[in-house]
Design brief:
The protein is mainly alpha-helical. The protein contains six helices and no strands.
């Protein structure tokens, strides 16, 4: 009789381990899916932020050259203030984009923010100025620039 109970207990343990293994596999699969969805939402959030800032630039097209046309900071006080404020918001957005790439493993292959950050370094002296004044305010952006020195082209 004790052998029967031992056999039943063994079958129960094996069944329990098999169910546990299946649950672990399913949890892993769901985690990957969840990370992918969270990554897509984070990219969307970053793009929404960027579109908001670019909407501000589009509303004042004379400012475009300070972000994408390599123009130095303007000398006129009110234009300079507008450029510096928008530049700080742009730095926040790019820093956010770079951060989400490092935080979500499902985004490791997405390089949009990295390339965009390097392009902005080459096309926006205002952004270089703002980030250079306070690199610790935008650690992902300043760190990315430091890790990828400009070739000067």
């Amino acid at each position: 009789m004790s052998e029967v109970f031992g056999l039943i207990a063994s079958v129960g343990v094996v069944a329990s381990l098999l169910v546990s293994a299946w649950q672990t596999r399913e949890l892993t699969r769901q985690t990957v899916i969840s990370n992918g969805v969270a990554g897509a939402a984070a990219i969307y959030n970053g793009m929404e932020r960027l579109h908001h800032i670019e909407g501000m630039i589009a509303a004042q097209p004379e400012l475009y050259v300070y972000f994408y046309g390599s123009a130095d900071l303007p000398r006129q006080a009110d234009t300079r203030a507008r450029v510096l404020l928008i530049t700080a918001m742009l730095a926040d957005t790019v820093n956010y984009g770079l951060l989400i790439n490092t935080l979500n493993p499902e985004l490791k292959g997405y390089k949009g923010w990295q390339g965009f950050a390097l392009r902005l370094r080459d096309s926006s002296p205002a952004l270089v100025h703002v980030v250079g004044e306070h690199p610790d305010w935008w650690p992902a952006l300043s760190g990315h620039w430091a890790a990828h020195p400009s070739t000067g082209s």
